[in-house]
Write the structure tokens for this entry.
Amino acid sequence: MIVQYHRKLILLLGALPLAASVPASVSAQGDAPAKSAVPATLPAPPANGEMGFVVSHFAPAIYQGKEDCPQGLAATLRENYLQTQPVGERTRLLEKANEKELTARWTGYAFGPDNLNICTHPDKFDRPPQRMVQGKVAQGLNLDDDAGGAAADDSCGHANFTGPAGEPGVDNQMWRAMGCVRTWRGVDGTGGDIVKGLTQFLVSGEHSQLLLLSGVDSLENDPDVTVIYANTEDRAVVDSRQNFIPGASYSVTANAAHRNVLKGRIVNGVLTTEPAHIRLKQNWGQGSERDIRGRRNEYDFTKARLRFTFQPDGSIRGIVGGYQPIWNVMASASVGGEGAATTAGYDCAAMYAALKAMADGDRDPATGQCRRISSGMEAWAVPAFVTDRLPQPKVAQR
């Protein structure tokens, strides 16, 4: 069961037999910016100024604008293969009697020279970019401090989004490239399988994350707050419906690479942090003695910022934004390999082409190609008792 569980999760990006509970309000609907209310009543911070949280939801920030995908969702590998055929041949292949032949041909379209598969080596295939978001509204942050989208020295110019609440200058080219992929986009305000899958990884321990705030004098306005954003090796404490239980105890990882110390401030109940390089672990499947999958990767965000709004119930909700390598966006499809193409139906070469075309950060001075892409990850966290395990300096013996 464990092998089947992780294999299906990786190949279908979260189409799980037991998915974590995700509220229906994952994304805003429509194209008109909606006003977001700042909580009217906030609790007082603890006397020692420390507040701990465990992240209960971390997935691409979804916004289902009505005008996003006017030509339809990103095509599957099967659909793209059929488009390479003359109309008459396409009609013949779609006949029920020829289903076996069509399956053999379109699944073969997932392989290239030396039997390379399209999802492990998407850069080896020459395919046009998949359909991308055409709408003007998306969740995310202004990562380049520029509402006009002009290119900085190390970035590539692009059109900015407007946030759902009317915020200008939102940089989220990841959503522009991936927002018409059906397993990302979802329907009816709920994100697709990628949202369910990544939330499940928080429950099972592959991606577990913590926040530890110190120096908090007020949840409404505080000019100087320290934020530790890190992983934990502790398994999530959840109820029978896999909802995170508030007040559970966790320890910050001892791995310094995945312990990020950020400088922040609180304004009108919203915590924001200054730009920094944020690294967090990202395992695709639990490692074990048999190492079923257990591929190790990282969330790797440069010029990254957090923006969280304090809620009256003590939780926080917001966005983690930054520039990540385009390969990281494709991590789950890449791990899935040929199964991601032939089972989930991804045309990973078209996906890679879209991400490469939309990349807007870390420009290679030699080629002019940007190697990172602006991203917005929606994050929610519930109160927790968090212990920081940073090693203490040794005291010299007399």
About this structure: Residues 122 and 179 are 19 Å apart (CA to CA). The first helix runs from residue 2 to 12. The radius of gyration is 22 Å. Residues 1-36, 287-294 have pLDDT under 50 and may be disordered.
